[in-house]
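Escalated from tier 1: magnesium ion holo job.
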Amino acid sequence: MSMTTGSPNMRSFAKDRTVADHKLTRDTLRRILRFARPYRGRLAIFVALIAVEAAAGAVTPLLFKNLIDDGITAGNTQVVLTIAAVVAVLAIVSAGLSVADRWVSAQVGEGLIQDLRTEVFDHVQRMPLAFFSRAKTGALVQRLNGDVLGAQQAFTSTLQNVVSNSLTIVFVLAAMLSMSWQLTLLSLVLLPAFIFPARWFGKKIAAITRESYALNADAAQIMNERFNVAGAHLVKIFGDPQRESQSYAEQVGRVRDIGVKRALYSTWFRVGLTTLASVAVAIVYGLGGVMAIRGQLTVGVVVALTAYLGRLYGPLTAMSNVQVDVMTALVSFERVLEVLDLEPTVAEKPDATDLRAAKEKHGATVELDAVSFRYPGADEVSLASLESVATLQGEVHRNTLDDVSFTVPAGHMVALVGHSGAGKTTISQLVTRMYDPTQGAVRIAGTDLRDVTQASLRATVGVVSQEAHLFHDTIAENLRYARPDATDAQIERALEQAHIADLVASLPDGIHTVVGDRGYRLSGGERQRLAIARMLLKAPDVVILDEATAHLDSGSEAAVQAALDEALTGRTSIVIAHRLSTVRKADSIVVLSDGRVVDQGTHAQLLARGGVYAELYRTQFESGATVAA
Ligand SMILES: Nc1ncnc2c1ncn2[C@@H]1O[C@H](COP(=O)(O)OP(=O)(O)OP(=O)(O)O)[C@@H](O)[C@H]1O
Ligand SMILES: [Mg+2]
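Tier 2 regenerated the structure:
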């Protein structure tokens, strides 16, 4: 592959030069090399191919020199034709080599991307829920994708540039010096006049490019936010289309201005580069021509020297920026490693036991024993470098749950009631071990959840959450997510039990109808019944139900209620109740206030005692009761 002066390495200028000052630790380098290890054979072939290509590129001008001096000047047709043929063959071989080296480097690069992506995915999905509640998923995904691509470049294009350019420079300089050291030195005199402005332009273009990326990202952000359903809805209700358009136009206008500026600077840079190279060529022709007339040089040498000059300036400029390139790739790598280094705060012990065994023996009781809990802060679960794009909130170092104790005997139902924000959903998060308690213990079948395998816990506890989420997939697949081996008949039965079979049957493709974000839209009540069906299919021994706070219409309400009756019978259940009908069915009611258990008993007992429950009854349940009755 030959480097021409007309194509400076523009990509490198999109990078931030400050990364060049970044320090990498030896440990990071070692870990980076670990990723390269599976590819070391192919990397060696890659480097060898690049070296051969660089050598082939450097030989051609020498051949031209011989063609002119030994062939044309000497009047030897044989030599002229032979060398011309060799040059042609060399060109074809070089082309073949470029394809081969791209093939090898693509294998390495894409393979590395695959490795990094798989490893990152595997690691991130094991992170505790707290991680996802902090990091903006979009920003996280975007950053990881960008970093993975950047990291891969350390081993492909950056390696190629370094090897190819440095070898070309060595070969070309050696060849030039061997022909005429005086002319070589003279033509290099122009170099400083060339490298220093190039570096200045590089810096300038890098800054402009970064700014244009930021402006573009802002414009995209506006579109993203306004064009999703929730945003569009908000604009339609409160917004002013004219104001929206105007502010978008202003943003896009800034993108236009910076685009023009960038085009201009890049052109100045390229034109300057070509001009300087041309001037250098003119100098060599001028001085070399005079020397040739005086018989100090042959015509072939003059031609070869000018050809070499053309091959020298491109690689020299590229190498003057190579440090930024290398460091950018390595820093991307480092940021991927940083994600892989995050310790999951909720991890499975190596000697974790199977919860199902304990359950057989002791029955599926659920027990909260003096549980206190505080949601982890950003410093505990997030990445420092991600915080710039993450949701930054004021740190609340306050307990969400305080000394909470209650027991749900096997097969019983306990209702959790309390004001909004009392900590009800938080309790469900602890029983499913999305988090570990800060103090105290959560036990199922007498076993601390920190001592059981996550798979057995998942098999034991089923949740229908406040906002039932469905993946963009068919109803059948959404249900099978809880139990991959479920047959269609079992799915139909679960839908039946959840009182949603009729609705599903009326959909165009039945259980194969695609639902979720971009699919068929289900109402809140329908979604919740599907979530109940999903849970029924799994048939867990412990059920946690977070009732939807939003009021359902009476038809939907009755259907959900019937589905729940079916779902809860015979199971140990914790129901976060917002409806009187549910509360009444409970064997016991736990009243929460500000993260503390303030009372516990049956509906009649609690009502007689007054206090928080009586107040909740008046404000929440009684009004809901008329709907639910
Ligand atoms: N991921 C989180 N990080 C930090 N604080 C949280 C988090 N989730 C909830 N909280 C806080 O914990 C407290 C209890 O929240 P929780 O969701 O348990 O309330 P709730 O009783 O379920 O309320 P509701 O009836 O409105 O659903 C609230 O003050 C809430 O702001
Ligand atoms: Mg809640």
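The domain at 10-341 is CATH 1.20.1560.10 (ABC transporter transmembrane region fold).
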